Amino acid sequence: MKMKRLLLFVFALSLAVAAVAQPPANYYNAANGLTGDRLKSALHNIIKGHTSISYAQIWNAFWSTDNKGNGIVWDMYSDRPNGTPPYTFHLGQDQCGSYNSEGDCYNREHSWPQSWFNNDGTARTDLHHIFATDGWVNNKRDNYAFGEVQSASWTSQNGSKLGSCKTSGFNGTVFEPIDAYKGDFARAIMYMSVRYYTEDSSWGTSDMTNKSVIKPWAIAMLLRWNDLDPVSQKEIDRNNAIYDDYQHNRNPFVDHPEYARMIWDPTWSADEYETPTAPQPDQVIVYDLSGRKLLQSDIRNKESETLQLKNKLQRGCYLIQYIEGNRVIKNEKLLVN
After folding, report:
1. Other CB atoms closer than 10 Å to residue 153's CB: what's the count?
2. What is the pTM of this model?
3. Domain residue spans of the chain
């Protein structure tokens, strides 16, 4: 198999297969080969017109979508993936109600706040952006944009923060979730932008959005979050539950995280790809277009390394990530034909 202007990657690769969502066969066929607004429009047409549930039904849906196991709420505003959460909620038992402090109860968090879409009925109950979260923390987040905090005015018990924004392009108040869930929220926000594309005439604006369009400073940040926090089994199970049991549509960015750059990254192109010289990464990861991690190399503490793909790749397009520490320093396309 011939590869156009492809580097030979010469390193011992450890195969690592990531959990991959399984959309129905041919679900994304209409999006094949598209980029930019054409891809955005195609995805919108695939996922629009979903089955809407009532606002009250969201509580019941959480048993499928936000159940950590044994009826424990999977609350991204209180969970500590690498440690014991400061408190837990039980589905059906600890619903808000009123609250006076963190840990009192959980409620229905619209990650795309309702004021941004003027309480549009369909978006108001769209499970792909509604999560079970601590009521007090949800109240602190209010309708502030997601962002990266320079100076925190308030910090939750799991490390989520409210404060002044350090993200380039915006300097107002933002809410920052912990790193482990930044990708989850990024993919939820991107879903909303695509799902309600051209259906947003009554929507308003926010620090992060103009109707359903995500502002440039915010989409640049969300693309980074999408890269740094890959799709988890939690998201896959949630996507499947919403599709199978409730709305019968999917979040394309959980199934295909690479769609994010294919829509919003102007450097992405379906043209012939020439691999540039990589920076000095700690790791190199190769993904296929289903979002599955095919190959991963840990080349930390090596002064120089020639890279080679361990196995021949099938014809198609791939995404290569160069990682330094916990930061993606470059994303590149790889076209094999």
Report:
1. 11
2. 0.77
3. 1-33+270-337, 35-266
